[in-house]
Queue: 4 jobs
Job 1
Amino acid sequence: MEVTILNISGKETGRKVNLNDSIFGIEPNDHAIYLDTKQYLANQRQGTHKAKDRGEVAGSTRKIKRQKGTGTARAGNIRNPLFRGGGRVFGPQPRFYGFKLNKKVKQLARRSALSYKASTNNIIVLEDFSFETPKTKEIIKMGNNLNFTNKKSVFVLPEQNNNIYLSSRNVQGVEVVTANELSTYRIMKASTLILMESAVDVLQATFEN
């Protein structure tokens, strides 16, 4: 699959890049995308929720009334979960929500997500560029040229570039990641996937290995 390479002005450079069909042209596997996205979101959860049970709330352990003869249910101490201010029964405890997912399933999910974007022509390949200093207006100007303004867009860089990251930080809907950080969740969430020319080689080398 060939895609025309554009410059930051949105004009064709006269060059094309070949996107590997084994990465950008497979039959998407929806279940693999679901599993990888589910794992990604689960890993974002802190899992620090906590409720006090009857052994942790403040209160005396004295038996508040005699066992029999009161006409009401027996009760131990004031920490009883049935009483106001008592402990909570089966309350949330700190836990890790993540789960294991095989490496091949994760790769299949990312290939499937990339194939979806390629099939709907939502992948833009830009020639390599950089900024001497962080300038937000340059990203906004680029968005107007490439028609991704007010859309959720992901810039995929071959390696970390602090000036590009700082330039896009305050632009709503624009996210900058390196090729190694590109996840299935980010691909599917974006309306437009913008790949730098050298990032394509990094992506294809990653999946070939």
Note: Residues 103-119 form the longest helix (17 residues).
Job 2
Amino acid sequence: MRKLSRGTLIFLIFLNGYVSLSLELAVLRQLSFYVGSSAVITSIIMAIFLGFMSLGYFIGESQKINDAKIRNILNISFLVIAGLSVCAASFPLITQYFTWMYTGGITSGVLQTFFYSLIFLSVGPFLFGLNTTLLSRVLHSYNSNCTGNIMAWDTIGSVLGSMATTLLLMPFVGVNYTVVLITVLSVVGALILRRRWWVWAICAIVLIASAFINSNSYQKQRFGILVNNANSTISVSDYANIRVLYMNGLPMSVYYTDSGRPADYINYLNDVFIYNMPISRTHKILVLGAGGFTLGLRDTYNEYTFVDIEHTLKDVSEKHFLKQPLTPNKHFVVADASQFLKNTDQEYDFILLDVYSNSYQVPESMITAEFMERLRARVAPNGIIAMNMIVSPNFDDKYSRVFDNTFHTVFPYNTTRHVIGGYNPWLRPSMGTNVIYLFFNTENDGRIYTINKTPVIYDR
């Protein structure tokens, strides 16, 4: 068997680094659909990924691995990585895994992530580490002083894999086809090392499986997925008289097709705050977290600005969810909510913050006092801020209590809290439900009534 050239070895080191980071990022994105992307979830995935990669580095140095067998081992390694990339990062297979988890009674996102990482993110990272060490051993036969060169090319591959995956591939090609590309690159590595008929056969089987499972047509037919990019997995499902817009596995917006009515909490906001606005002037309304654009759906008079980081939402809503174009008074801005608030000097008469889809996948930067200060700075005099929260209505968990404390730190006066739908205040533990936090930006001097001073007659 012809000896691999120095350039080929460097390319394989680069390819190994590229595939390893690209696969890790694709997995993080796909898992966010079920377990979110909090620091805890990310740390579990990275710890197991890096831990097994380190083990691969150690094993690769073993003298029991004969130099004459390194090329064959690398060939098998890239084939296994190609197969694992399909299993570990393909959305349909991940969905099946979580179905089994819930069926087995394992509902903790932390445990689900740990078992997933242990099963699917142990062998692959181990082989990435093993490949780097074995390729380095072969490259040292050309130059024993090339350690820095090896580390540089591996790092360059990782950097390009990270940037290409997050900045180009997932946003514009889609997560599913990014997984196909990872499979293709792994197959390329295997074929560079060995081109026997059975290697070609395995490569063909893996590529066909990856292309089919990750195809847009299959995922749309099987799961109703319309968008699967770096930010969101979006699908729309029709049931009896109701249409639901899902983002990252969660129902983000509801539309009753028989009556044209939105979700209950949006219906409450429309009836009480939007459709009651005086028509003496045009009011400015800001919606952070566009969802299905159902706030003020029938309002063609006031001026709306919908802000969301997902650029496909307007197109998906008009074509598949609402199935009607937005009226001209509705404007869509693609931006991060916090950055939008930071960069605008516009004041709004009504602001709806609707980015908290549940208590497990909370955008952590948008639940802080600092973010709420930005929000408060953008409400006009006599304006109103509404926050749709999924919390315990009777403060039955720490998250609900701490959020309430945070809210009242920034909005100590002129606030109220409305629970959408009925609930049992004595039920323990209580289920999270839609709770609307409201702030009315009217003047308040902070006075209180005491036994010594009670000028109620004048205040009223």
Note: The first helix runs from residue 6 to 35.
Job 3
Amino acid sequence: MMKRLAQAWGFASILLLPDYIDLTSQAGDARMRVPSPLTKVALAHLADMLIVGLVFALLTALLRRLKRWPAIRWVLVALLPPMLFVRNLNVMPTDIPNAAVIALNMAWIAIVVLLVWRFKALAIKMRKAGSAILTGFAVFAMVMTAQIVRSALWRPGPQAFAHPIVQAPATRPRLVWVLFDELGYKQTFEARDPSLNLPNFDRLRSESTIYTDVTPIAYRTTRAVPTLMLGRAVTDVEYTNSNKYLVQIENNHWEQFNAEQSLIGLAKQHGVTTSIIGWYIAYCGVFEQVATECYWSNDDAQDRGPTMLDASFLQNVWFPLRIMVEQFIWPSRAWADDAAWNERGHIASVQDVSRHALATLATSQADIIFLHIPAPHPPGFWDRRTQTFAIGGSYADGLDYSDRLLGQMLAELAKQPRWASTTLVVHGDHSWRTAMWRPLPGWSAEDERISHGGEWDPRPVVMIHSPGQQDAKTVSAPTSLMYVHDFVARWIGSVAGD
């Protein structure tokens, strides 16, 4: 009995590994970029492991009672390893082509059939070895269970804080620094789809300096943002379960992110107040000692479960199991349901961060306001035809929303007494990563059309509006996105009188 329970537990841990892996070991980095405890999510994963383990144990117990159990056992030997293999493809260290997956699975089934047909004694030895391996998976299950429990006990850093700021005179320089995540130059300006109208981006371009050949500094936000803040090339990051933000500098050594040496730390050293509204990166924990005001949020479904912080416990138990079953019997339905779930979470992120960004522009007295907006970053969250948040949107829809939000920002800034003294920086951290999104749920027919089959252009948008600027300027020379860091550093120095 104990052996069979151990086998069931081990089977459940392997079958469900793609669901909970982001809560374990170093992979937990992604899931811990949230401002709320993961207790509900972790317990849901444990419940799924219990449910799958019990179903497997009961089902095999019933099958053992059947007269045809010897034959059924060989069917299970042939089918279970391929099923576990296919289920865990997205946690493999490298992508495996579909043709190779099919070939490997067919080869395994053929080997089992051949051994049973012609080499029965060898087949029995293989079956016994497989049974022992499955039992041994219980050790793996124990380790994974312990790590999930650890995640359930994890507590995040602060989500928000604010220190008093004395109101500054209207003539004091101000910097509003807006990062639109995944804002690509080509789709926004150079080769905009004819169906898309972006009046606010066009208006800002007519009153700003635009850089048309910007070289990105990283492919991912997690590298680009710390690189911009530090002015040093960050090639990898890890946010630990002890809420430490570790960065790897230029593929060399690891160190804890030093907020004092960042642009926010530089501002504090020069008496320049800062307000941060951010997404995905744990801004308030990272910059707690140097920023004046901070709020960050992340409602996206970050783990591959999929689960979500704002979903109920029962939803987080049921939905991953439903997706798993659909992946085997109705893959297209699983694809659509997974996309809708991810988009639902991203809608919540965009709504929350946008609301706080506009409120900060309206009320904050900070000298620097840094806004990290999770748009037009996929997955889809907006329908430009109805002007409403909706699942099923495209990157073009995300650009439409970004333009709409930019218009609201410009309108709010124009009301501020310090607008005439305000420098406005608007840029992307990287461009639209078509190669990354195209194979994932949520890629739409419109995405395929406007990207011309997934063509990638690496250039992010960079626009800088100087106080009182009313004419358009263009810099066509190759420019690294690191220029934004240098520009902000110079701005801080000029305000401080250096």
Note: The chain has a mean pLDDT of 91.
Job 4
Amino acid sequence: MTPNPHPSSQARALPVRSPFMTAVLAALLLGSTIALSACSSPGALDAQATTSRRVASQLPTDALLLGEQHDAVEHQVIEREAVEALAQRGRLAALALEMAEEGNTTAHLHADATEVQVRTALSWNDKAWPWAAYGPVVMAAVRAGAPVIGANLQRAHMKDAMADVSLDAQLAEPARLAQQDAVRDGHCRLLPESQIVPMTRIQIARDRAMAQTVVKARVPGKTVLLVIGAGHGNKLLGVPQHLPTDVAIKAVRLQAGPGDNAAGAFDAVWLTPALPEKDYCADVKAPPPRSAG
């Protein structure tokens, strides 16, 4: 079974999971804040000021992890505002993204680079991650003169990760079992049991790759902003588990609608309006239509 890096619709549906998942998995828990409107409206200005205050409340830190629900458009707006808030304080070391693979960066581009140049530099996959949603986040960092860095595991390395038994030891057993259960849920509990351990290894490898990106991008006195799915930001299971102890981090969950914050999973939860309920597994589980006659 070859992993598919496109975020599955079912993974997007589960607010407690990390949805970059048909090749990967899902993840867990809790989230973030702000309601927004058009950029020039008073409401939008108030929302941006709120984001700025909330970002300031997490500083100083070497890395600020924003864990989103991928289909919540308010979350990408907050991420752009967080980029701008850090840049205005002169604290933005880099913007690192789950949405682009390791080895891709805009560091060689000027602040006035075009969107085409930026997308090319990041090898952007618009089918997996719509540029319409993430482009404003990326371009805010470029315009601020900060590098945008791909943080995700390269697709070419996923097969190797599936067979890498050393990844099993990267998490304590309770966390590893929780990740395995997230894989089951993220695939609508249709994935063969024989694939659970290999797919969990991919999740662990992705978290480790993103952690390594943060370490490489760190700048004293500044903050690396890492934009990821909420499950990857979970301090008990995700990227924080793979960071050295000398890297100070704050993990924030952006959460659409009410939810529980498990103790120690995130440093803060910022709430946004709930999304309409949708069963993202319905199409996967539905039987194929019968042919006529």
Note: The domain at 9-275 is CATH 3.40.50.11550 (Rossmann fold).
